[in-house]
Every structure is written in structure tokens, then in C-alpha cells.
Amino acid sequence: MAEVTLTDISKAFGETQALSNVNLTVRDGEFVVLLGPTGSGKTTTLRLIAGLEKPDAGRVSIAGRDVVSEAPASRDVAFVFQQYSLYPHLTVYENLAFPLRSPARRLPETEIDARVREVAKMVRIDHKLENRSTKLSGGEMQRVAIGRALVRKPAIYLMDEPLSSLDAKLRGELRLELKRIQNEIGSTLLYVTHDQVEAMTMADRIGILAGGRLVQIGTPREIYSNPANLHVAARLGQPHINLIPEGLLPGGSAPTGTKTIGARTEHLEIVRSGQGNAEIDWIEHLGDQNHLHIKVGQHKLVTLADPYLAIGRGDRIDLKLRNPLYFDAGGQRLT
Amino acid sequence: MSNATSAHSVVEPSATTKRIAGIIVVLYAIVTMVPLAWIFMTSFKSPPDSISYPPKLVFTPTLEGYCNLFTTRTRQTPEYIQSLGPPQSTCDEITRSRNMVIAGPSNYWPRFTNSMVIAFGSTFLAVFLGTLAAYGFSRFRVPLADDLLFFILSTRMMPPIAVAIPIYLMYRELGLSDTALGMILLYTAVNVSLAVWLLKGFIDEIPREYEEAAMIDGYTRLQAFRKVVLPQATTGIAATAIFCLIFAWNEYAFAVLLTSGSAQTAPPFIPTIIGEGGMDWPAVAAGTTIFLVPILVFTILLRKQLLRGITFGAVRK
Fold first, then answer.
1. CATH class (in words) of the domain with range A242-334
2. Transmembrane region positions (chain B) (predicted)?
């Protein structure tokens, strides 16, 4: 395990600037999640660290040594791909043993066997070791793919949306499992996703990427409650943060220069009132909670409500802000 | 899929359609099989039976064609033949019954061996070079890749025989005329374009992630190619090999023009088998029958891959 540092990394593919001036440090033993939409440069970041791409500018260092000119094989990283993760012509066992049998390592077979069986148990696939890798379910395949990374003890594990092709239930299970395994072996891990739940639940720190730039990096708590700008604020929170013009709702104290107010559920106070400034437009019943769709003049807001809150469509309410987030005309956060 | 679902399936052809398709296939198979059956039967006929009209469907089979194919014979007086000891083999006996004795082996076997060496040699080279080139085109940013690929394909656009005379002159200058090496190079040149195009299609379908994963796992690109790409490209490689082999094995025009002696292949040799007083048809048929065997064996061995090769990508996995 080791610290991995990106310094002033830029990378373009033809006309497209995939990454510009990215600085990122993944500390030894840390679980960092890069969160961003498609095309924000998440995967490119991983590929640069792995050596599958060369940066146009900047330094990649692993455990203090500059690796930009090194081949992927000598960088000592492990990679879990989003899909096509297993070699289809090999069995599960052979897939897991593949990295250990590489010419770069050449471990004795007894040691390989021990490692493979240990990891297979860890990712709970030990009952299917002799199966062809193509005969597995999606979840099993991804577990083997993660296992193939874990058989090694690399400087860093790089994971590119390893759970995105799975169904929700499995994703939830593997999310926990991955976090458990990472805790167990104390590995350094850089994980890429566009799923905010994965980011919030697994990360020690979250890095928000947008348009090839690292906009903000911090603990999940910081990113959630202290976003640097509108973009970061919009990445997290379910339902989506409400962006409303300054002055639309009472409450709070907007600093000068405020253009937009970001209001999440916890920033909105609802009081039933005949004369209220807002009206309930629609209610989505999710069972454990309700999504209230609220109309304030021309603006529509969505917030969460307790399912026991006695409120119905068309009811008038008083809507008030409570410590919301303030943004200036450029989308930067004001405090 | 069970019968119950296929009966109602929209995509599955109906039973009638299948039956009609089956009949068409059988009819086509019969039409294409008749010449082969004819050759096979002729190879077991005696020379008079082979040219009798109307053709005989029922005849006494004899190995005379095969004996004549592999031997050269000289006519002798009955007294001389009687003075010899008992016949050494079946062929000896058949030959003597025609008032002849075996003088020595014919050239068929050396020609057949030439065919084997040249066809398999050029197939190996074409597939080997084709695989590497296809991999390069598939994975790297080759400058002018599209133009190069078109250029490679364009070598197939004219009939090979159109360049026969320049090649003939060139080969004479280079001393490659009538050499196995010359024929191997020539067939490789013709086949390599087919190989590159076929294999590029197959390799394009193998996701790069496999190699990238292998390279991160501690393998060099070449090792990743060997351990990960090659095993997955076997289908394509086998199909390509069959197509190349069939071409090189059957090629006639260049073989006639460029080989006459030591490097002559079987196709130009077989028609030159002449018996006493005209063509020895049973021997020609026997030569053809044996000539078919290697390609038949090779195709049967690789028929699964060949089918996938023909249907290309459509039914993979």
C-alpha cells in the first residue's frame, strides 16, 4: 500500500480536454471516491494512474516515485473494470491466479493456490472456482473481478464503476462487502462512480469531478453540507437540491451578492396554513417517506416529508428557509 | 427452446419454411456432390469401364487406378512376365494382367508432398502475418490505417492471373521459379490480405479491456496478446486458416505457370497422368480423390470454427 499523487495532470483526446490541471493525493490506506457525470474525466484519471494512458502534462507518482514513463505492468496497481472484467477462456480459479502467474511475479504454485483460495473465500466465490467464468451471474463475475484485484497487494486498487452493471440489491450487498474488505486489508483505493450513494457510503473522501477539473475534495459530510459551488451541491442529496432565486422564500439571511439559494429537505420548514406562500402540487408515496412537490409561484420544489404528515394535494402551506446554501451569480458558494 | 414456445415464436421459422429450406439444401447438396461421387466411383473403375457409354453405375471395383497413379509401368512380353516370380503385391498382379510390369514409383507422391508443404507453409505464414497485422490495425493508431487497409484489400480486386506474366518474369530473375519457397511466398502474398481483413473483424470484437487488464496484471503487451487475445481469436484464426488453405491447395493457374519440375504441386500434375493410348481416367480420378483428403480432414476438424467464420460475428458466444 502506498500514497498516490497526481500533480497538475492534463490530458486531451484530440479536441476534447479530458482532464485539466488535476491535483489529487490518495493517502496510504485511504478510500477515495471520484464522483462525476459521464465524460467528467473519472475513468481517464484511473487509466492515467494505471499507465493505460500517458498524461500530456503533469506527474503521476506512486509511493514517491514518478511512474509516468513506466509500463502498466511495473506500476504495481490493480484495476477493476466496469465490464468485460473476466477472461472468458479461463475458469474462475485461473482468472484469480492470472495476475500471480504473470512473468512479473512468478510465484510458486503452492503460494498462488493459497492466495487464490483465501481471496475466493473473501469475495465468497470459493464454491465456483472450477466454473468457466462465462457461466457466472453478473454479481459473481464482478466479485471475481474484484477478487482478481485483491489477490495482489498492489500500491493502489483502482476501480472503475465496478458495481454499475449490477441490479440494485446486489449493488447494495457488494457495496458493503467492498467496504468491509477494504477495512480488513487496509488498502489504498481509488474508486470511480456516478452513484452518489456509493460515494457517500464508502468513501473516506469524495472528489467531485466536473468537465475534467477536480472541483472539490473532502469527506462525504463536508461535500454534502459544505459544497464549494452549485455543481457540487447538485451532485449529492436525494431528492435533488432545490435551486431557487434569492428572495422567493422567507427565512435565512442571504449575504450580499446572493443570486441563487440551494435548499435541501433539511433547509425547508413546512407549516400548514390557510394563507401559506406555497401549495402542495403533488405527493409521491414511497412507503417509508413521501416526496412533496411544492409550487411557489412559478417555481417547483421537491422535498421529503414524513408519511404521517397529514397533508394533501392542493393544501396551502407556509414554506420557510432554515440555513440554506447561498450561491453568487457565478455559482460559487457564499458563506 | 422448447417446441411449445417455438411454435408460437415470431422469430423462429415455421415448420413448413424449415422443411422447404431443408429440401433446397438437400437438392443443392446432391448437385454439388454428384461430381465428387463421380470422381470417387471412377477411381475404382477399370480403364475400359471409365470411358464406357452410357456410364456404368454398377461395375466391378478395382484398385487399378490407384496402382497406376503411384507407379510407372513398362510393357513386356507375356514370356518375360511368366519368367518372373510370383507377384509381390496386388498392384503387381493387376499390372501383370495388363501385360506390364512396374518400373518404379510415379511422381504423384512427390507432387502431393509439394502441395502439402506449399499449402500449409503459405497458410501458416499468411495467418501468422495476418494476425499480427490485424492486431496492429485493430489496437494501435496506425497512420493512414484506412488507406493501408484499402490498399491491402485492393490486391484482391484483380484476378491473380492478371499479374501472372510480371510475376513469371520476376521469379525467373530472382531464381524463385519452380521452388517451393517461391510458391509459398506467392500464395502468402495473395492470402495475407484476406487474412488481415477477416482477422481484423474478429480481433475488433475482443474488448481491449482484457489486454489492458492483463498488462496491469504484470504482462507485457506481447504476453497479453499471447495469453488473452490469441485464445479468444482461435475461432477467427481457424476459419481464416481454412480459407487460406483451400485457396493455396486448389490454386492451379500460378502452379501451372511457375512450377514444372521439383516444386510442382498436385493440381497441375494430376491432369498430366497419361496411360497407354490416352488419358488414364481412373488414375486421374484416384489422384483427385486422394488430393481431396487433406482439405476434407482439415475442414472436418475445424468445421465448428468454419461455420462461425462464415456467419462472422452473427452467432458468436
1. mainly beta
2. 20-41, 116-136, 148-168, 180-199, 228-249, 281-302
